[in-house]
Amino acid sequence: MPRSRMPHELHVVSTENVTPHLTRVWFTGPGFDAIAARTETDAYVKLVFLADGFDYPQPLDLGVVQETLPPEAQPTLRTYTIQQVDDENRRFAIDFVVHGDEGIAGPWAASAQPGDRLPMMGPGGGYSPSADADFHFLVGDETALPAISAALQAMPSGARGVVYAETGDVADEVELPLPDGFEVHYVRRTGEDHSALRDAVVSAPWPDGAVHVFAHGEAELTMRGLRPYFRGERNVPAALASISGYWRHGRTEEAFRTWKRDLAEQDAKSA
Asked: Domain FAD-binding FR-type spans what residues (predicted)?
């Protein structure tokens, strides 16, 4: 008997173009209460994209799909961070990076219309700004900006910090909800080279006291470029270091999961 995996069904409320390469989609549906209940500012969901031309069981059960349908009918899952939650109107937003017809989720978001349906698994999450930290250091590329925006809105009163955000073009910069005591530095990416962001981070003044770090985005940069700096050189304890890769150049999310698993095994062996 297959293990039941029943996704929530989302409905598109509206869409808006935030930047030339960023589309915001507002959703509602039965999954809203689960989204609103999360306290983490990096709350995320797995969106389920079904293959065309197959009859899926209704109600949709991904456990049944996995056990009974052929490989070509297996849905594609893509992980996205919640950009903001609108409790009054029972809706929430997800920002999609869109580069033409590249990928699955981006093109879907670019053509989404009110009323379109999309299954969702989750949510999950693991980070929220510590009220005990003396300083908050937030780093990320376009994929991390939703979580950074949510974190800034949830900062405790009197918090201080800095944001280093990477985009491919000045037109892709977004206006972040900076509290008093925070500043943002946008860094320009050239092609697949993230060295400018790492250079900016490691050359930034290091504050006194307990520093809470959030560094998410392209995995090679975050896990092999920034993690050794924050955890090794700056001795940020694990409890105050949320460092993770959301994606990696040239890999689908499925291949990226394998890369992350291999990296974790390598780390365990060298520990």
From this structure: 5-130
Indicate which CATH number applies to the domain containing 80: 2.40.30.10
56, with CB counted inside 10 A (0-12, 13-18, 19+), is: middle
Tell me, what amino acid is at 257? R
Same structural domain, 108 and 225: no
Q: How many domains does the chain have?
A: 2
Q: What is the predicted pLDDT for the residue at 4?
A: 81
Per-residue pLDDT of 178-217, as tens digits, reads 999 999 999 999 888 899 999 999 999 999 999 999 999 9
Structural domain boundaries enclosing 115: 8-124
Ranges of residues in the chain with a pLDDT under 50 are: 256, 259
Beta strands of 108-261 (E only): which ranges?
Answer: 117-124, 135-140, 161-167, 182-188, 211-218, 241-247
pTM for this model (two decimals): 0.88
Strands (E) in the chain, as ranges, are: 8-19, 22-28, 44-49, 76-86, 91-97, 117-124, 135-140, 161-167, 182-188, 211-218, 241-247
